[in-house]
């Protein structure tokens, strides 16, 4: 196989991926610690319940803000990849780092790869549904 038919892994892309995963792990840890405070005693007062609900609403708002920011960043990046791929007829396009050795495709396969990338850009918005549902659920039943 020819060496120019593959893109070798980018150290920068790998480091950014590891940093992002570590950041998500820290956020999950913080969220876990924050949700532990929502366990109320058996004879909780109305003030304790209201305070706990208010804290839960704030946590859901932070989650919503994070998911919107993440959706904007990922969908923008994926649309840039797809646009450049369609323009050049090559997938993945030149100048974009990969985290593992990736075969370069041309022509129809590159177009299908770009279409899949557009679909993934749309899917990047799906996590927003979780905090929106939680907000609706909390408002509906409180």
Can you put this structure into words, describing what you see?
This protein has four helices and four strands. It is mainly alpha-helical. It has a two-stranded antiparallel sheet. It has a two-stranded antiparallel sheet with strand order 2-4. The longest helix is centred in the middle third of the chain and has 43 residues, at 46-88. The chain is elongated, with a radius of gyration of 21 Å. The model has no long low-confidence stretch (mean pLDDT 89).
Give a short summary of the structure.
With 142 residues, this protein is mainly alpha-helical. It is built from four helices and four strands.
Features:
142 residues; mainly alpha; two-stranded antiparallel ribbon; two-stranded antiparallel sheet; 4 helices; 4 strands; elongated
Give average pLDDT, whole number. Answer: 89
What's the main sheet like?
A: 2 strands, antiparallel
How many strand elements? 4
Helices and strands, in order, run as EHHEEEHH
Q: What strand line-up does the widest sheet have? A: 1-3
Topology:
Elements: E1 6-7, H1 11-35, H2 46-88, E2 90-91, E3 102-103, E4 105-106, H3 108-123, H4 129-140
Antiparallel strand pairs: 1-3, 2-4
Helix pairs in contact: 2-3, 2-4
């Amino acid at each position: 196989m020819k060496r120019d038919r593959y893109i070798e892994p980018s150290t920068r892309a790998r480091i950014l991926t590891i940093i992002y995963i570590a950041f998500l792990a820290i956020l999950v840890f913080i969220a876990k610690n924050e949700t532990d405070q929502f366990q109320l005693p058996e004879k909780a007062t109305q003030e304790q319940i209201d305070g706990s609900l208010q804290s839960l609403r704030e946590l859901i708002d932070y989650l919503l803000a994070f998911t919107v920011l993440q959706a904007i960043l990922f969908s923008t990046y994926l649309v840039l990849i797809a646009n450049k791929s369609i323009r050049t007829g090559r997938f993945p396009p030149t100048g974009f780092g990969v985290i593992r050795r990736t075969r370069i495709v041309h022509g129809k396969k590159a177009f299908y790869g770009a279409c899949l990338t557009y679909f993934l850009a749309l899917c990047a918005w799906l996590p927003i549904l979780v905090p929106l549902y939680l907000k609706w659920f909390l408002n509906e039943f409180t």
